[in-house]
Structures are given as structure tokens and as C-alpha cells.
Specification:
The protein is an alpha+beta fold. The chain contains 4 helices and 7 strands; from the N terminus they run E-H-H-E-E-E-E-E-E-H-H.
């Protein structure tokens, strides 16, 4: 008996987003979902991210939107490091998890976005490469969103 290969795809993207002194502001922008909103997602959350809390994240117009409900599984905030992870809930266009990690080094602040997911959305399944490019594009939008939020004082 053979087993199917894991259909999940690992995506990782990160970049410098500002000064290390902005870590607290960047963390607040993540847990308040402002980074996601600024990246173009429709966000429905009852409040800031908390382990066990759920958030609805959607992209696109109502008639063709993709996304679903996610559940926060990890929040870590230590000296020079902050991490938010959430996983998809049943009914989401993807199955998997996404992590946002803020870290400081040499006076600079870095945001790394990583995800491991497989799609359940028929359109994304039919155009798998386009779907993966879309995920990469969103990771880049998260980083750009964070940069823009940190520039605004």
C-alpha cells in the first residue's frame, strides 16, 4: 500500500520592515488584524488575536470571495521576537496554518510570513500554480502592509 504525498505546500517570505524599536507597534498591528486589513483582506474578529479566538479572513468580492474562518493557535512575545500563528477551520478555501514572526537583529525589524497549506477550493485546485502565486503575493502584501503601517506615526 502506498501513501499519497502530502499535498501541502510550504511558503515562506520575509523582509526588513523597519527599526527594531518598532517591534511593539508592529506586534500591535498584527494582533489587532490591521496588517491583514491593510493587505486587502476583509476581517471579522471579535477583538485582538488571542489563543483560541477565531477570525474570518476573506479576499475578493462577495460573489467570488475566498477565505474562511481561522483559529489562533499560538501567540509568543519575548524580547526581540513575536509570533502569531493561526490555522484554518473547516470550510476554509485552504487547509493549513500561517505564521507571522517579527524578529529584531542589528537594530532592524524583520517580518517573516510562512504557511503550510493545501487547497480545498475548486478554482484554486484547477489553477494550482496561480493559487500558489496568489499566496506568495499575499505574503508580500502583508510585508508591504506592515511597512506602510510602521511609517505612519
Amino acid at each position: 500500500m502506498t501513501t499519497s504525498p502530502d499535498p501541502a505546500v510550504l511558503l515562506a517570505y520575509g523582509a526588513d520592515v523597519g527599526a527594531a524599536t518598532d517591534l511593539a507597534r508592529a506586534w500591535d498591528a498584527l494582533v489587532s488584524w490591521r496588517v491583514h486589513r491593510r493587505a486587502g483582506l476583509r476581517v471579522r474578529a471579535s477583538g485582538p488575536a488571542a489563543v483560541g479566538s477565531r477570525v474570518d479572513l476573506f479576499l475578493g468580492p462577495r460573489f467570488a470571495r475566498m477565505g474562511g474562518t481561522d483559529e489562533v493557535t499560538e501567540l509568543i512575545e519575548t524580547d526581540g521576537l513575536a509570533r502569531l500563528t493561526y490555522r484554518t477551520r473547516p470550510g476554509h478555501a485552504e487547509r493549513g496554518e500561517q505564521t507571522f514572526e517579527l524578529s529584531t537583529d542589528g537594530g532592524r525589524l524583520r517580518l517573516d510570513v510562512s504557511s503550510r497549506s493545501a487547497t480545498d477550493h475548486r478554482l484554486l485546485m484547477a489553477f494550482e500554480t496561480a493559487g500558489r502565486l496568489g499566496q506568495q503575493y499575499m505574503a508580500m502584501r502583508y510585508v508591504g502592509s506592515m511597512r506602510r503601517l510602521l511609517v505612519r506615526r
